[in-house]
Amino acid sequence: MDFRPWSGYKKWREGDLVFVLKGPQRTMHVIPKRGLTQDQKEELRRLLEQRCNAGAELALSRETPL
């Protein structure tokens, strides 16, 4: 598994089923929500907001299902 510090992720987005993190050089990491408890989802959201350019979103259409 590839290790990347939080600073390596510049943008993120949350969909109904997944979290998507954008890394360098057009790489993306997808984290499925089905494997997370509600508490883990809330903690991940908090970490993403704090450490990945708070509030930044990927340049995807809001209509794009995730």
UniProtKB/TrEMBL annotation:
Residues 5-48 form the YcxB-like C-terminal domain. Pfam families: YcxB. It comes from the Bacteria. This is YcxB-like protein. It comes from Acidipila rosea.
